[in-house]
Specification:
mainly alpha; 9 helices; 0% strand
Length: 190
């Protein structure tokens, strides 16, 4: 998950405030730590100017186009996650998200650098000291995913959002504001 996804599920009422804050903090720390660990193992390969710590940067079309592209891919990703994870095809949520990421890397990365994740982008920016375009990746992905959440809720309703897990197990406890557990309890009581 990433801060944009966490914020969206918080907005949808599936993640409690303290949990959302903890997740977002951990995601940012993890993004920075990931680059540090990769650098320690890969050394100068990651620091090479051709790689530049995999810093997320806009393509040749510029900042506005990159921002719009990030908004669009983030919105489509969250719409996909919400649609698939709240359907009978929920077990394929990860596969659908992974397929979209693959397509985005191939087709969209030259436009915006393909982030969708402010934490990953910050981790690379800290190591690369690349700050000038960070605003793109701190605004467009969260706004795109929040837009997707709003579209989903307005078309399907809050009750259609079952859980913040992409693929919910049939049994076992859930730490989220989960409709699966409530539905199971209602079915048992009946």
């Amino acid at each position: 998950m990433n801060p944009s996804v966490t914020l969206s599920f918080y907005r949808l009422g599936k993640v409690a405030s303290p949990d959302a804050l903890g997740y977002v903090a951990a995601q940012f720390v993890g993004g920075i730590a990931g680059v540090i660990v990769a650098s320690s193992f890969l050394g100068m390969l990651v620091a090479d100017p051709a790689v530049n710590y995999v810093a997320t940067l806009p393509g040749m079309a510029g900042q506005l186009v990159a921002w719009l592209a990030e908004l669009a891919i983030s919105c489509l990703m969250m719409l996909t996650v919400l649609t698939v994870s709240n359907s009978r095809l929920a077990r394929f949520s990860g596969l659908c998200a992974g397929a979209l990421v693959t397509i985005y890397i191939i087709l969209e990365a030259p436009i915006s650098g393909m982030s969708m994740n402010p934490a990953r982008t910050l981790g690379s920016a800290v190591a690369a000291q690349a700050w000038s375009d960070l605003w793109i990746y701190f605004t467009a992905p969260p706004l795109g995913m929040l837009l997707a959440s709003e579209i989903f809720v307005r078309t399907r309703g809050y009750a259609a959002v079952l859980c913040a897990k992409l693929a919910h197990p049939r049994a076992g406890p859930c730490i989220f504001e989960c409709e699966h557990a409530r539905r199971a309890a209602t079915a048992e009581a009946a």
